[in-house]
Write a structure and sequence with these properties.
Helix content: 10-25%
CATH superfamily: PAS domain
Number of domains: 1
Oligomer: single chain
CATH topology: Beta-Lactamase
Radius of gyration: 15 Å
Strand content: 35-45%
Length: 114
Amino acid sequence: MQPCAWIHEFPAAITVCDSAGIILEMNARAIETFADQGGAALVGLNLLDCHPEPSRTQVAAMLKDRTRNAYTIEKRGVRKLIYQSPWYRDGVYAGFVELSLEIPAEMPHFVRQG
């Protein structure tokens, strides 16, 4: 799979896997984020092997049921939004994309009408 050029330097971690959970791509931020677990060497491995329980069971269910998952975390004082969603190629389920975006401690929230 050939990524678009802008993805590599995008300031959020992007990891893409296929429908079996095999990691297909990681951008530079994802490689940096997961350096302690192997970084770029994770490409080609199954992401289920990268998750301890109970996350492993949850990820397996998401792959099977093709469901989306979104949550926030804080590690070492850095807050992140984690967004995991199925992706499709020509309308056929192809796997998952995980976006990990740093978010500021204080962030405005707007409710817009219409």
